[in-house]
Amino acid sequence: MAKEHELVQLARRTIQEYVQHHRIIQPDTPLSEEMSKRAGTFVSLHANGELRGCIGTIEPVRPNIAEEIISNAISAATRDPRFPPVTPEELDDLEISVDVLTEPEPISSLDDLDPKVYGVIVESGRRRGLLLPDLEGVDTAQDQVSIALRKAWIGPHESYRMYRFRVIRYH
Fold first, then answer.
1. Is 82 exposed, middle or buried (0-12, 13-18, 19+ CB in 10 A)?
2. CB contact at 8 A, 13 and 7
3. What are 45-77's pLDDT values in tens digits?
4. Which domains does the chain have, with CATH numbers?
5. How far apart are CA 146 and CA 28, in angstroms?
C-alpha cells in the first residue's frame, strides 16, 4: 500500500483514537505549511468500495486545516446520519480520503460547471447543499445540481444561487 498523505494520516489517527478510546487527538506541532492554512475540508470514508461516512465544512470554521480534519474525521466516523458509527472492528478496512476545498465562486449557469473538475454548492435562504466533484455516477452538471438541491431540501422550481469550487483530494 502506498504511503498515505499527511492529511489522510491525520484523519486516520484521529478516527482510530476516537473510535477505540473516545479521545480527541491534538495536531502535531509545529504544523506543516499545508496543515497551517485555513480551508474547508471533507473527510470521506469508504469500506469495501461503498461510502461509509462523509462530513465536511464548506468554509473554514477552525484555526487551521489540521483542526478542520480532526473535527470532520470524527464526524464522518461517528455522526454521519446516513450510517451507524464506525466500530473498532471496521478500522483496518477503512479507505480514507481528505478533500481540501478552494474558495467557492458564484456561477450563473450549468455551463460554468464540469462535475469532474468542480464541486457545486446550491443555496436558497439558509438551506445549502454541496456535492463534491468527480463522484462515480455523477456525469453531468444537471445531475450534480439536482443531487445538491435534494440534499439542501430545495425544490427544483425554487430560486437558488450556485457556486463552484475545486478540491485537492488526498488518499
1. exposed
2. no
3. 999 999 999 999 999 999 999 999 999 999 999
4. 6-101 (3.30.700.20), 105-170 (3.30.1490.150)
5. 40
